[in-house]
Known about the structure:
With 113 residues, chain A is mainly β.
Amino acid sequence: GQSLEQPSEVTAVEGAIVQINCTYQTSGFYGLSWYQQHDGGAPTFLSYNGLDGLEETGRFSSFLSRSDSYGYLLLQELQMKDSASYFCAVNSKLTGGGNKLTFGTGTQLKVEL
Amino acid sequence: KAGVTQTPRYLIKTRGQQVTLSCSPISGHRSVSWYQQTPGQGLQFLFEYFSETQRNKGNFPGRFSGRQFSNSRSEMNVSTLELGDSALYLCASSPGGTSGATDTQYFGPGTRLTVL
């Protein structure tokens, strides 16, 4: 089976930096994706790591260590609008081709003034 | 490019009924995946369609089915609705292809289904 673990809730102040960790156990691992979801909204793609190392996209960065089955999402210069749920998701290759996402339970980020 | 669209956005049904949800992928995308999101189980993979064929399936009962049309639009059907089927149903599109293992999936706004 596949399982992912991430903290359920993180609170930080505006302008700060926050790191959301994700550990996983899975087979057929291809990469780790991160999605943001505001209440009532659709998951929005943030970042993907297929190889070890850091990927940077504006204020967001994501890191992967395949040997440690570990990744994290780093959010810098936090803004109030960053208050949302953040999901890590394993991309795994399927025997029929294509891929599926197996999601973690999500981390609720609260940004305070 | 326009994003993924889903209709309807909200649905209320009663137990025993059936429901059909629709998803139009991003133009040029050939793969459509469906996910169920509930507070208790989180986001779970239902199935994936590519070139009008179900390519992969998650661990859901046979009451959950789908299809894909030649224009890549997809429908999902749930028969004999149960209270536990109340959820946000999300579809995601990706370019697809013979491998597609690293394709990014882009989600639609979802259909909120309430079963009474």
